[in-house]
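Give me the fold.
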Amino acid sequence: MEQLIRRAAGILARSQRLVVFTGAGVSKESGIPTFREAQEGLWARYDPGELATMEGFRRNPRRVWEWYAYRFGRIEQVTPNPGHRAIAALERYLPRVVVITQNIDDLHRAAGSSDVIELHGNWRYYKCLGGHTGFTRADFADQTDVPPRCPRCGALLRPDVVWFGEMLPAEAIERAFAESSTCDAMLVVGTSGLVQPAASLPLYAHRAGSPVIEVNPNPSDITPLADIFLQGPAGQVLPKVVDTLATITPGQETGFPAACG
């Protein structure tokens, strides 16, 4: 493992345009449940068709709103873990780091990452069924309706997160594909590689000839194309990678696996 960490740090040390692609696993260590784990995942206990679709919201908007209020209340209580902080620390050593995340918890920004692309939205924002966006809780704090109504048009408000059957935000996914296609290295952390189209981002980097480093407790659908697989929780593995990166003198990088040329 120590040798693999050294190789991964060497790849990062040579990077001028790093993309970090993260999933629910990186936030699990902060206490936020993932969605798809067989026993602990949210969808093992709740029906996504009732709680994370527009159809479910229209059938019972109060239930959906209250479930998200409970979930967001839990998110509000957590803080970035060593994995988030290690990702943010990469900006001290590399000229450009872009974080692409499937998470809505905003923990990457809280940890200090400065350029974050959110594919599935952000828990802090709301939009209405009439098409107005950009609301925060302060905008409807004086309302007693559940769900509250849009301050502009009176339509029902909902969380501005991506539900099943909905398209990802066009600007976010377009930029994510562009960054993945032009990066010179990709660090994949805590994602199963099952949810499309986001799961194809590492493939874009791989096809462009960029080395892919994966950090995960268990192999995923991305592992077969990874140049280096670092098995373990992000909060344990990534600080070691960053500590090793900090010891590498520019021009002395020795990290590329043979397959990367």
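The first strand starts at residue 18 and ends at 22.
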